[in-house]
């Protein structure tokens, strides 16, 4: 629709007339704008500067007095405001998202495509932004096509929906006339969804994993993780919620040995733990990082080789202390591929050729095939289809029921609420909110995510 790709068949009609959109400039000329999942703003420039330079033909010499007056008049007509004179880098995620939307309205776009518009927002910010946009559509000022995987956003803020599955239209309907269960079936198709494992009651289980006074710096050398203290008991899922960019990635990297801590300690069963291969093997620590193809796999190596990363130096794959036997490696891979329903042409297929859900399953097969005492999982279902999401969440719950201490990082609040026994919130590199899931609610979690 935006003109980045050309259709091989079919057509686009605007106001009933077939229209050729050859590039994004054509789309903009027809009043079509897009707010992408990740921000496209220039962080070092102010909001006003970002708006002015977004025009197709900004003036060579900018009369800022005139431009600020025009921008002020523009904002007076808008349902939400952002500060114009501060650098974008100092704006909150919610303000940046509003600015992205304002930019499209400033460019006089009346048909907006929103790609996962709430992925970086707190629940409160998401409701505010979507509520204001719904008001504009009800007033007839705007038409919106929203791409989302969240049922709540569909049922509360949209009028009609279409379900895409594997690039094809799998169903459509009017919101209010179709139940969430029916939408789910459209998303799943004929695939059989693995039922969620029942949550097994746990009582007075010992602490297995402890983070004590942990500090770590980010890539720029500034503090990213500050004074984090957390305990995870056997048979407990501690879910860490938070808006992206608040230290979660850096904390996961410290726990997985990909980033050094500047201070603090880790303990497993009250013994000091260093996140290296030897200790992870000894203390049965396993994990699934976000973007597993980049962080948990070698893309060009085979599925069998990737699945064997935990066991390649142990019998029966290794003999004589150093000789790798491909036969046992492939046999073990076939067992796990079958058990975890990994869809691959063969064990010799390159990992990079698998779909996102099957990469996730293959990594889970490797990480969960043995006894697990500690499981560290980060955004395990991001970007996956509905069936894969159900499968992976069931696997996580099963490990919890077997007694594993599970630390779940997720930017999907619904996932946190569904899986967690205890909910913690990370904001500004700190964890200041920890509550049993039964006592937590969206409002208090949202405030904590926003740093309140």
Q: What labels would you give this structure?
A:
six-stranded mixed sheet, Rossmann fold
Describe the structure.
It is a single chain. With 452 residues, the chain is of the alpha/beta class. The protein has two domains: 128 residues, P-loop containing nucleotide triphosphate hydrolases (Rossmann fold), CATH 3.40.50.300; 243 residues, Rossmann fold, CATH 3.40.50. The protein contains 16 helices and 19 strands. The strands form six sheets. The protein has a six-stranded mixed sheet, with helices on both faces. The protein has a four-stranded antiparallel sheet with strand order 9-8-11-12, covered by helices on one side. A hairpin with a 3-residue loop joins strand 14 and strand 15. The chain is globular, with a radius of gyration of 24 Å. The two termini are 40 Å apart.
